[in-house]
Amino acid sequence: MSGRSAAARIRKAIAVVNAVADGAGDEEITPTEIAEAIRDCLEMEEVSDVPNVRKYLGEALDATSDGMPADFVAMTLYAALGALQEGMHA
Amino acid sequence: MRSAEGRGRTLDEAVDAALIELGESRRNVDVKVLRENLDETVVEVTVMDPAAATSVSAGPVDGKAETVRSLLEGLLKHMGVRASVQVRVGSDPITLDVSGRDLGALIGWRGETLRALQSVTNVMVGKHLDEGERVIVDVERYRQRREHTVREIALRAARQVKMTGDAITLDAMQAFERRAIHLALEGDPDVTSSSIGEEPDRRVVVGLRKGAEN
Known about the structure:
The complex is a heterodimer.
Chain A: H1 4-22, H2 31-42, H3 46-49, H4 53-65, H5 70-89
Chain B: E1 3-8, H1 11-22, E2 29-36, E3 41-47, H2 63-79, E4 83-87, E5 95-100, H3 104-107, H4 112-125, E6 136-139, H5 142-164, E7 168-172, H6 175-185, E8 191-196, E9 203-208
Parallel strand pairs in B: 5-6
Antiparallel strand pairs in B: 1-3, 2-3, 4-5, 7-9, 8-9
Helix pairs in contact in B: 5-6
């Protein structure tokens, strides 16, 4: 299992969330778009192969729908990315 | 604050001329383009106040900033990173400068790890901050240097757009870098900047402003 495409999707979701947090002022990103990016990650089979990745992604999705700050969502996605990368190198 | 005027055929040459006069490196200066045309570029290079870049002891730091600083210092300690954390005096929002030896790993590829560290820090210190208030984390002034770099890229692109009339699409950048470009060009009456694409491949396009085609 490469897991690289899953990592790329998580990175994309992180970039979307960071764009909200950093406020480049060139795009209006809605919570729906963030949720979509996280759901795209959850759809990948690889995320089920590594422990905790699906769990962290689920938490990030919940945090988005609960209206938690962007930094919190980003941190949870970083946790998912970290778990995936640890699993890939295990 | 020391400053000097530099002239050259290109932006780089003008900045270099001013830096030579000041005896400074690019790291700690701010560049303002005073005039540019096909033959010559004139810039004003200002050395940033060293006091504004130094430690907590350099000036009064409010309780909130000190709390945030000690939390980040504690986090780094738990991570096994030997570094000092200082509050950038006069910064708004609160900016924490992390410095030490061999902190490249803390910055990561294109600042990815630094960005993660900032997210974690903001989550940790959130209850000490007002609503909507955020903390910026910088490691070895990477963020500041990167902002300067992209600002220079923006000015160079603007110059080229004015000469050729063709729009230029820059490389994919993070949100804070895109913002630096938009801010660098917002006062230019001849060019405009906008972003296209989706994260993380979102890019800034620099083009001629409507009405400036001639």
